[in-house]
Design brief:
The complex is a heterodimer of chains A (194) and B (566). By secondary structure, chain A is α+β, with helices and mostly antiparallel strands. Chain A has two domains: 2-86, ACT domain (Alpha-Beta Plaits, 2-Layer Sandwich), CATH 3.30.70.260; 89-156, Alpha-Beta Plaits. In chain A, 36% of the residues lie in helices and 35% in strands. Chain A contains six helices and nine strands; from the N terminus they run αβαββαββαββαββα. In chain A, β6 (118-123) and β7 form a beta hairpin. Chain A is elongated, with a radius of gyration of 22 Å. Chain B is of the alpha/beta class. Chain B contains 23 helices and 20 strands. The longest helix of chain B has 17 residues, at 340-356. Chain B is globular. The termini of chain B are far apart. The chains are: A alpha+beta (194), B alpha/beta (566). The A-B interface holds A 16-17, 20-21, 24-25, 28-29, 32, 62, 65-66, 69-70, 72-79, 171, 173, 176-177, 179-181, 183-184, 187, 191-194 and B 1, 3, 11, 119-120, 123-124, 127-128, 131, 136-137, 140, 144, 148, 171-176, 180-184, 305-307, 309-311.
């Protein structure tokens, strides 16, 4: 059944204004409409006023469309896209702290990490931290591999996603006050300035 | 020239065409009230008695005029008192701008006196809200607020302005031209393919029905609706808020749909092979059980809010767009059609309904709400703006006061807010001073906001209050009778003497207990320039029929028996 589950996952990507309260608005929307989401990540983009959000939904594309149309209604949400079948790159990052207190566990960790895009970023006498970057499913697979060793702590960032090639999801929006002040300056006092 | 934030608020309101605002002063909004004195001649402030009244008045003003209604309150309790009114406006897509004072920026987050996180509180019940933290942002924020409130699917917008921002000075620049918001672009026209798909379904339909909602009026598509209905001979059923979208005496209008809608409307929906849903949102009060709703029908859904399409009912053709624009695209290609059998079938249902009409009953010695409302309809020439509260009288108004013109029935449909009617009527009168305005309210709801009688007196607002008094919370009582074995828990009301209360406020009044007193009292109220109050003491245990029990199938209506069958 695991495969069917992965098939039903859809990614919604939103460009949002980097303003106080935007995340709150989005969280409030999800709660209010009882949208179930898998993961949500927010990060800055190359534009200072724009953040980008990746939302993973464990539901069909119709549900994702519902989320997208509701997200688009928020004034601070600039553009929403659903990445479903189109080619894209997606990455999740996990930090996994595992037991590392005997030779057996140390060997197993090294052996598993060799087979995956994972590396050991911190080693102590009792525990080690593994950093693993990849798609959601490969991380899940990896977690199942290390689970028998003994996971003591774990965190995942959630998926981020980007369309391949020239599928560009961007905006040329700059912040509003700058826009208005520029317009006022262009009028150089001839506009409606009281 | 430099202006203070408070003056910028006033200047901005003027530029948005505001001439009246409803509000209540307090510490954190005081600088703005101080600035008001310079603008008194152009910007009238109505002092309410409770901020909830201010938000309902702004809402009533907006619904009556199609313009933006403005309410003002102070921080903390002032702002939280607006909440019910904002939620009401949100549910019914009413264009309201609320301006609230906030504690000074350095005090925000410190649990200062009268501090509430108002943008947090109102986040889910406003279309958008702002906390202005820099006086330089104030003017364009207000411009944006008005733009967002009135465009697309309208809704309430709140602007929270800390006290120090009201005091701070800056160069006043009001942005010219259209607002461009990167994340806000309400849809307007439909694609040709969508129009063609809709036309195909209309041409193929044998039993089509139009479901006309509030969106018709907000888009100004009344003429287009009528054209569509007449040319393709499609009967029109109205939502509660859609009343007035097409004159109700038009032969193709078959009345309201839904829980207390006309039986013919509900039956027609269930038997239709095409629903044309225009500017309505398939509320549960309209659909009943979704699993059995209009199973025979294909659906065309046109709404300006894309997220409404496929939300409750799956559309075969869903068009996100402005109704008037979309119908204007569609009409030139629409062929004339007729559906005599279908319309004949609806006529039979209508015949059956009129036999069950309460007005055909002999009811000696008692006064019924339906009679009162129907008499008010007759005596006002069916042309008044009626503003209702929520409950039995609201549904009976919808059934017994046919509306000919758009935006003449103002009622809280989505949120069902008791206490809405009277203050909203005051707001409507400010928006439409030349029209006759009636607040038709129940004894329960009226007591929630009756303090606004003082506002009506202070402003000498010519609103006629018709209290339909059955000494019960009538609709709740009806549910208790039908679904809770008549256990009337917390529904009987011991009421004040409403006429004495009116006397205390200095409001001319009448108490009516018999049918033959109705006309004199209504004409008495109409003859007075200023607020009046008539208490109609009606039958205690009336029922509103038809009724689709909550969650039941739309065709599964409880009907009033025909005379002789009872």
């Amino acid at each position: 059944m695991a495969e069917a589950k992965i098939d039903s996952k859809v990614t919604v990507v939103a460009l949002v204004e980097n303003e106080p309260g935007v995340l709150n608005r989005i969280a409030s929307l999800f709660r209010r409409r009882a949208f179930n989401i898998d993961s949500l990540t927010v990060g800055r983009t190359h534009r200072p006023h724009i953040s980008r959000m990746t939302i993973r939904v464990d539901a069909g594309p119709e549900y994702a469309r519902k989320i997208a149309t509701n997200l688009q209604k928020l004034i601070n949400v600039i553009d929403v896209r659903i990445i479903d079948n189109e080619p894209h790159v997606e990455r999740d990052l996990a930090l996994i702290k595992v037991r590392n207190d005997d030779a057996d566990s140390r060997n197993t960790i090294t052996e598993i990490c060799d087979r995956y895009p994972a590396r050991i970023v911190d080693v102590g006498p009792k525990v080690a931290i593994i950093e693993m970057v990849g798609t959601e499913d490969i991380i899940e697979e990896f977690i199942e591999q290390v689970r028998p060793i003994g996971i003591v702590e774990m965190i995942r960032t959630g998926v981020v996603s980007m369309g391949r090639g020239t599928r560009i999801h961007d905006t040329n929006f700059i912040n509003r006050r700058a826009l208005i002040e520029a317009a006022a300056k262009a009028r150089s006092g001839n506009g409606r300035v009281v | 020239m430099k202006l203070k934030g408070s003056e910028i608020i006033m200047e901005s309101l003027l530029r948005e065409g505001v001439d009246v605002m409803f509000g209540y002063p307090g510490g954190a909004i005081l600088p703005t009230y101080d600035a008001m004195s310079q603008y008194e001649d152009r910007l009238h402030h109505v002092l309410v008695r409770h901020e909830q009244g201010a938000s309902h008045m702004a809402d009533g003003y907006a619904r009556a005029t199609g313009k933006v209604g403005v309410c003002i309150a102070t921080s903390g309790p002032g702002a939280t008192n607006l909440v019910t009114g904002l939620a009401t406006a949100m549910m019914d897509s009413s264009a309201v701008v609320a301006i609230t004072g906030q504690v000074p920026i350095p005090a925000i987050g410190s649990d200062a006196f009268q501090e509430t996180d108002v943008t947090g509180v109102t986040l889910p019940i406003t279309k958008h809200n702002y906390l202005v933290t820099d006086v330089r942002d104030l003017a364009y924020t207000i411009k944006e607020a008005f733009h967002i409130a009135r465009s697309g699917r309208p809704g309430p917008v709140l602007v929270d302005v800390p006290k120090d921002v009201q005091i701070a000075e800056t160069e006043f620049i009001y942005p010219e031209g259209d607002i461009v918001l990167p994340g806000y672009d309400p849809p307007s026209s439909a694609q040709d393919a969508e129009i063609d798909a809709a036309l195909r379904l209309i041409q193929e339909a044998e039993r089509p029905i139009i479901l006309a909602g509030h969106g018709i009026m907000m888009s100004g598509a009344m003429h287009e609706l009528r054209e569509l209905s007449e040319r393709a001979q499609i009967p029109v059923s109205l939502t509660l808020l859609g009343k007035g979208a097409m004159p109700e005496d038009h032969p193709l209008v078959i009345g309201m749909m839904g829980m207390h809608g006309e039986a013919c409307s509900n039956l027609a929906i269930q038997e239709a092979d095409l629903l044309l849903a225009l500017g309505m949102r398939f509320d549960d009060r309209v659909t009943g059980n979704l699993k059995t709703y209009a199973l025979n029908a294909r659906k065309i859904h046109i709404d300006i809010d894309r997220s409404e399409i496929n939300k409750n009912v799956k559309a075969d053709v869903g068009i996100a767009g402005d109704l008037r624009t979309v119908l204007t695209q569609l009409l030139p290609k629409l062929k004339r059609k007729s559906h005599p059998d279908w319309i004949g079938r609806i006529r039979d249902w209508q015949e059956d309904s009129s036999e069950r009409d309460i007005l055909n009953y002999e009811t000696p010695g008692i006064l019924l709400t339906a009679q009162v409302i129907n008499d008010i309809w007759k005596l006002t020439g069916g042309d008044a703006i009626t503003v209702t509260d929520v409950g039995q009288h609201q549904m009976l108004e919808a059934q017994y006061y046919p509306h000919q013109r758009p935006s003449t029935l103002l009622t809280s449909g989505g949120l069902g807010t008791m206490g809405f009617g009277f203050p909203a009527a005051i707001g409507a009168k400010f928006g439409k001073p030349d029209e006759e305005v009636w607040a038709v309210v129940g004894d329960g709801g009226f007591q929630m906001t009756l303090c606004e009688m003082a506002t009506a007196v202070q402003e000498n607002t010519n609103v006629n209050i018709a209290i339909i008094n059955n000494n019960f919370l009538g609709m709740v009582r009806q549910w208790q009778e039908l679904f809770f074995e008549k256990r009337y828990q917390a529904t009987p009301m011991v009421n004040p003497d409403f006429c004495k209360l009116a006397d205390a406020y200095g409001i001319p009044n009448r108490c009516v207990t018999r049918r033959d007193e109705v006309e004199e009292a209504v004409q008495f109220a109409r003859g007075i320039d200023g607020p009046t109050l008539i208490e109609f003491v009606v039958e205690k245990e009336e029922m509103v029929y038809p009724m689709v029990p909550a969650g039941a199938d739309l065709h599964d209506m409880k009907r009033r028996p025909k005379p002789g069958e009872a």
